[in-house]
Structures are given as C-alpha cells and as structure tokens.
C-alpha cells in the first residue's frame, strides 16, 4: 500500500497559515518575560572609546545595560561562527559594520528598553571603511586578528585565512588542467565580468528569541531557528554547559530562506537572562533584520576558450565573495560555489578560483540558493553572450555542451541520477506549447531566454530520527526538520506511512524541541528530505528487526524471515506486540541515522565523493521590454527541476514556483545600499524594494522530471532560484539586443545599455 496525500492533506498547513491558525514563535512567549533591545553602532568601522550607560540605567524599569565585557562574565566564549569563531555576541571593543550591536538594554517591557537604548552614549574613534569587492580583496589591513576556525564541519577542516592577506578568509581551487595552454590554441576566447548586489531575505516573521533560566541552572530557549540542534551545540560551548541542560524549542517559522540558520540572537538573550536571573526576550523590527546576514554580493570574471562549433574547450573563473564583517557560512559558500562555477557542461579543462573576503558591510549569509544563483548568473549569461557572438542559437549552444546522466563532474564526483540534458529537454518541450507574447505596440519588444544550472547538496551533515511503533500499530516520528511553510511535516509523515504500510492519518510527526527529538544538522541547503528519508528507512529497518525477533515468541506460527516485511504480514504488527508484551501490547522504538560518505578534495579541489547528490534545474523567461523607458515586465517563468522521487508532487511545484518568484524580485529590484561611509541606506520595507503583485510574472509554471529508476528524493527548496536571473537577461537580449551584466537589472540600466548600443 502506498500512502496517498490528498489535496486536503497537503494544503492544510497552507490554509491554516492563510487564515491565521498557525501559532508562531511570538505566540508562545513564556510568562514573566523581560525585554532586551540592542544599541547599534552609528559607524561602519571604529574602535569603541567609551560607553556611557548612566542615563539609561536611571530609566525606571531598566534591569541592566550590558557591554561585551558584561556578557563575558557569564559566558566562557563570547564568539560564534560556522567557519570561524570570529563574531562576538556584541561588539568586542571594535565595530566592524554599521548597525553592529555595541550594548544591550534589558528592561521590564520593550518600550522602556527602547527608550533607555536611545540614552546610551557611545564614543568612537573612526577607522578606514572598506566596502567594495575588489577593494576588500586589495585591503591588507586585517579586519580580524587570530581568528579561530570553528572545526564544526568536516568539509571546512583546515581552513585558514591567507598568510599574505588575512582579509581573504578562505580560498578554494578547482583545477583540471591549464587554461592558458588551451586558450592559446583555441579559435575563440571570451571573457566577461559580472556582479551581484547584496539582498535581504526579509521574512515577514521578523527574528525573535527568548531565554528562560531555570532554578536548576538549565536554560530553555524559544527561537526562530532552522537549526535547533546546532544552536544548542553553540550555546553549550559558549556558556560552558552540557547540552543536556540546554533546551531549544521552536514553532513553525513564518519564512526562513536560509536567513534563520546558525546562532543569531540566541547567545545574547541567554547571556542577558543569566545576568538578570529572569526570562529575557528580543524581537527585531523589520528594519533591524537588515543588520543580520543577507545574500552576499559577488564579482565574477569568467573566460572560456571555444571552438568554431561552439564547444567549450576550457573555462576559467575568479569569484570574489563579499562576506562583510564576519565570515558566517561564507567558507562553505566559497567552496560550494567554486565547485560548480563551470556549470553543468562537459568542459575538458576548468580552472576556478573562489575567494571570500572581509569588508565593512553587514555580514553575508546563505539566502535561498546558498550562493549558487550568483554563480549561475555569471556562467549562464557568459554562455549566452558566447552563443550570440558566434551566431549560435542559445538552445543549440547548450545542447552541444551539456553533461548527461552518468557523467563525471569537474570535481571528480559522478552526477549519479542527475541528468542536465533530460531537464533541459523537458523545459524546451514545455516551451513548445507556450508561444512568446505578441506586444501591443511597436515600443514594446518581447524576448525569450533560457538557462540551466547544477548544485551540490550542503554537507556532509547528519540527520537522526526516532520512530516509535505504538501499541495500536500507529507510529510517531520524532525528527528535527523545521516546518517553515514547505510542508515538511506532511512529507515526513508520508515517508513513514509508505515504509510502515500505514494510512497517513496513523502517523504523527513530533518536532520543535531538542529535548524530544534527536540530532539534525538543520533545515537548509536542500538536504532535509533526502537525509531524513534515508534516516527514516533505517529506523523502519530497526523496527523490522525487532518485530522479527518478537515473531520468534509467537506460539503456533513460524518466525518471520528476512525476506518478509513484518509491516505487510496479515493481521498487522499489533499481533507481534501483543505476543511479545501481553494483551495491551507496548511500544517499540527504532532509531535511524544518516551521514553521507565524504572524501576531502585534493590540492586541485577534486574528489570522488564531494557531495551526496546533485540537483539540476532549468528556467525559461519571457519578457516584454519597453524600449522608451527600459522597464522590463516578466510575462512568463517556466522552471523544470530534477528532484528525484517527489514525496509530494504538488508541494514540489509550489516550492519551485515560489522560489522563482522570489528570485525574480532579487534579480530585478532588490539591493542593499550603502553610502561611502558604510551606512546602510535602505533598511526596512519602506526603503528596500521587493516585488509586489503587479511586478511579479504574469504566469509561473513549474514541474519536475524523474527517471523512474530514481527512488530517492533530492533537494527542491533552492533549485527554483538558480536560473531566473540569467534567463531574464537572455530574454532582454533577445528582445532589445543588449546584455546586462550586473544585478539587479533596473530600468535605467536597460535604457543606458540600449543608448550605448545605439538604439533609437
């Protein structure tokens, strides 16, 4: 029997969100809460000379005004970070970006804390500010000294800033040959430069965290986090406590997009709660969210040697990732992004260098796509420019170069079931039934563009589940996947129902509490469904072994052999439970864990096992360009993704569609702006523009391809983002004959490009 998810099942969570039935983090605020408000820096780079707290402390209701030194009286280590432990809870005497917390006020209510925060007087000695990508790379004055690698992740083992430039916190190489040697004999060599701006995820549920100190010395934390297990590990290390004495809870999230990964505000509220001996909460405004890690800006220079027929012979790329003031997840992004910078193409020689640099911008993070959309923007727009220069149709150009299923990726890791050619051809077939729009006037020009991309899953990381078989044969799954609108609870229940041969209604999913669910690295990087699927299967196999052992105790029946599935035996598992434990039965618990195999890369960045699986997606965009104003309207987006086994096809399509719309907004409208001194100019949705309904594509279509022999789910949450920007750029070129090389693509940029190209 295969458990079937009805439309009612898969839309229930979405409907409950729409009508307000979901209880989010801020609906669970513990009783007796006091409130913390941050005092933020008004400069991007400076030494803190003094902090005068006297006036703030005099405000009635204020419980404390704390600096980094105060927080360190209750913390063993005041720094956190995933690649390096380089980020202090609040500024450690040096401000490294505008809006960095320099002090924290705790009061009996939030309004009082906000009032007192305005009375804290901070004196600074300003230091030089470095903002731009190339300037950050050239800067030899260290922003950090003696940073300590976190050593939390196997794939980041041994990272260290460059000795010749400590502001380059990581450098990644992927090399299969000598580009210059191939280019010297190639008929054509093309080189282009591309950039992407910083952008915010701007989830509507703004960040909050609450800490409650218990009388026994333990701490409970309620947080909007995509990584509760990892947050608990970080807190235990920072405060010198055992993980058993730290409990991290979460509710369904109102949007995550990678914005709520790792430790953010949790260390601050825990330190404050320990200092005042009372529960302490912190709730950010939308404006404050813009001082948390956001999508990193990049500058990419990419060159390709090509033959007369359009075959790519060699490719070289140099990528600068502007990490802002702290590395955060940057080392992983630098490595993962560099690994795929040659694209899903059969290229004999690749030479990729990818570097992460510190600057005085707000720290960068891993917003939806883990940096891959920035890389795809470069190599797919570059490919389109090559095809145009050679007079080759962009579809034909890609067909001549695409990898196929079973190919060996440039990293040395096989593609496995991932098949870029199958994905691309499915998209082209879909376009056959979708004619290009016919503009209503001569000033409106229509165009179509295509793009395709590949990504490795985040890892290696571990997922663990506990699967309990109840006395009546129903099942309860304890897992750490975080529900944030993607429908993970329904998907996990479906996997269990299939494995245990149960109706979906007989499966309950428990999550949201590190005291009751086993370790999971986090819900990020398109890893969760794949890793949890494998962990659940192992837990189910554990239960099968236990049921076979119980069958040995049943009178009058032959024991169940290894070739028989106990969950498919007539009479069901209830008979085994009663035979083993009496008329009331009992519970059995199976445990399953999955950690991918991983082989560290060699000095050229190559490995037979650099990822558990690959994801591939292709997008086509139809646009209409107003030749008089440069305004671009997206008429249609079509996205096809290879997702392996879709646990819930309708949810897959919804995720792909939502991702593509989000990336259309980032591609066309969104940019975090700074002045020359590093001040953030547009925090909050009043100043930061995102797409509204009128801006969004008129039509969005998303679907998946699947090889029937592929029975394992792969990632889907990110793949709808990969190709949107280059598909739009290609469509603009098809419409008006100009190439855009910088994101976002604004009307004035399109108009300027047309004027420079000599358009009337």
TL;DR of this structure?
With 760 residues, this protein is of the alpha+beta class. It has 19 helices and 27 strands. It has 3 domains: 203 residues, Aldehyde Oxidoreductase, domain 3 (Alpha-Beta Complex), CATH 3.90.1170; 321 residues, Aldehyde oxidase/xanthine dehydrogenase, molybdopterin binding domain (Aldehyde Oxidoreductase, domain 4, 2-Layer Sandwich); 132 residues, Aldehyde oxidase/xanthine dehydrogenase, molybdopterin binding domain (Aldehyde Oxidoreductase, domain 4), CATH 3.30.365.
List keywords for this structure.
3 domains, 760 residues, Aldehyde Oxidoreductase, domain 4, disordered N terminus, globular, alpha+beta, 5-stranded mixed sheet, 7-stranded mixed sheet
Describe what you observe in this structure.
The protein has 760 residues and is α+β, with helices and mostly antiparallel strands. It folds into 3 domains: 12-127 and 203-289, Aldehyde Oxidoreductase, domain 3 (Alpha-Beta Complex), CATH 3.90.1170; 294-458 and 601-756, Aldehyde oxidase/xanthine dehydrogenase, molybdopterin binding domain (Aldehyde Oxidoreductase, domain 4); 463-594, Aldehyde oxidase/xanthine dehydrogenase, molybdopterin binding domain (Aldehyde Oxidoreductase, domain 4). 27% of the residues lie in helices and 23% in strands. It contains 19 helices and 27 strands. A 7-stranded mixed beta sheet has the order 3-7-1-14-11-12-13, sandwiched between helices. It has a 5-stranded mixed beta sheet with strand order 9-18-17-16-10, sandwiched between helices. α7 (228-239) crosses α8.
């Amino acid at each position: 029997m295969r458990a079937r998810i009805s439309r009612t099942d898969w839309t229930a969570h979405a409907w409950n969100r729409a009508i307000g039935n979901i209880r989010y983090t801020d609906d669970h605020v513990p009783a007796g809460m006091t409130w913390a408000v941050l005092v933020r820096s008004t400069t991007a780079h400076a030494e803190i000379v003094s902090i005068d707290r006297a006036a703030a402390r005099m405000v009635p209701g204020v419980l404390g005004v704390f600096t980094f030194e105060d927080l360190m009286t209750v913390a063993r280590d005041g720094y956190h970070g995933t690649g390096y432990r380089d980020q202090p809870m609040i500024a450690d005497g040096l401000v490294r970006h505008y809006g960095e917390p320099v002090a924290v006020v705790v009061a009996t209510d939030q309004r009082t804390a906000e009032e007192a925060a305005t009375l804290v007087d901070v004196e600074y000695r300003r230091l030089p500010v470095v903002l731009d990508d190339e300037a950050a790379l050239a800067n030899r004055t260290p922003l950090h000294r003696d940073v300590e690698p976190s050593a939390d992740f196997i794939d980041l083992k041994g990272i260290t800033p460059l000795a010749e430039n400590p502001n380059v916190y990581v450098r990644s190489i992927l090399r299969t040959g000598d580009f210059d040697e191939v280019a010297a004999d190639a008929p054509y060599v093309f080189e282009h430069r591309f950039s992407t701006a910083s952008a915010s995820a701007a989830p509507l549920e703004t960040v909050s965290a609450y800490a409650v100190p218990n009388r026994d010395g333990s701490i409970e934390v309620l947080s909007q986090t995509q990584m509760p297990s990892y947050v608990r590990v970080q807190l235990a290390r920072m405060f010198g406590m055992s993980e058993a004495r730290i409990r991290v809870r979460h509710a369904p999230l109102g949007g995550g997009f990678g914005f709520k990964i790792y430790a953010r505000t949790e260390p601050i509220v825990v330190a404050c709660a320990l200092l005042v001996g009372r529960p302490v909460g912190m709730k950010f405004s939308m404006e404050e969210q813009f001082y948390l890690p956001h999508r990193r800006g990049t500058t990419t220079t990419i060159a390709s040697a090509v033959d007369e027929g359009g075959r790519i012979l060699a490719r070289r790329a140099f990528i600068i990732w502007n990490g802002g003031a702290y590395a955060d997840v940057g080392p992983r992004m630098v490595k993962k992004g560099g690994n795929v910078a040659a694209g899903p193409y059969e290229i004999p020689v690749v030479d990729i260098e990818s570097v992460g640099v510190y600057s005085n911008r707000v720290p960068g993070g891993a917003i939806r796509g883990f940096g891959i959309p920035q890389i795809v923007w470069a190599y797919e727009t570059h490919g389109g420019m090559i095809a145009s220069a050679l007079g080759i149709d962009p579809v034909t150009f890609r067909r001549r170069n695409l990898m196929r299923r079973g190919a060996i990726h440039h990293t040395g890791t096989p593609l496995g079931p991932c098949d870029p050619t199958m994905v691309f051809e499915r998209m082209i077939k879909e376009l056959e039934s979708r004619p290009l729009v016919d503009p209503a006037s001569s000033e409106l020009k229509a165009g179509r563009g295509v793009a395709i991309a590949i990504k490795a899953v985040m890892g290696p990381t571990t997922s663990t589940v506990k699967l309990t078989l109840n006395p009546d044969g129903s099942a309860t799954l304890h897992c750490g996947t975080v529900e944030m609108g993607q429908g993970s609870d329904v998907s996990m229940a479906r996997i269990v129902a299939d494995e245990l041969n149960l109706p979906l209604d007989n499966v309950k999913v428990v999550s949201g509490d590190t005291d009751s669910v086993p370790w999971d690295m986090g819900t990020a990087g398109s890893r969760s469904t794949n890793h949890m699927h494998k962990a659940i299967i192992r837990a189910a196999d554990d239960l099968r072994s236990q049921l076979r052992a119980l069958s040995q105790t049943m009178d009058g029946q032959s024991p169940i052999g290894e070739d028989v599935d106990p969950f498919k035996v007539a009479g069901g598992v209830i008979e085994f439970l009663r035979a083993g434990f009496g008329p009331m039965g009992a519970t059995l618990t199976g445990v399953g864990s999955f950690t991918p195999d991983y082989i560290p890369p060699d000095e050229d960045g190559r490995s037979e096992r650099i990822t558990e699986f690959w994801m591939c997606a292709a997008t086509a965009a139809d646009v209409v360009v107003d030749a008089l104003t440069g305004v671009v309207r997206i008429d249609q987006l079509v996205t096809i993704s290879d997702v392996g086994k879709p646990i819930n096809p309708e949810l897959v399509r919804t995720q792909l569609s939502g991702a593509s719309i989000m990336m259309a907004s980032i591609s066309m409208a969104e940019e975090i702006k700074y002045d020359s001194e590093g001040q953030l100019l547009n925090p909050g949705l009043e100043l930061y523009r995102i797409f509204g309904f009128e801006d969004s594509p008129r039509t969005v279509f998303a679907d998946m391809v699947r090889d029937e022999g592929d029975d394992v789910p792969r990632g889907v949450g990110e793949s709808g983002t990969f190709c949107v920007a280059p598909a739009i750029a290609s469509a603009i070129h098809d419409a008006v004959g100009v190439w855009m090389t910088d994101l976002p693509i604004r009307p004035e940029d399109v108009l300027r490009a047309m004027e420079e190209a000599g358009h009337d």
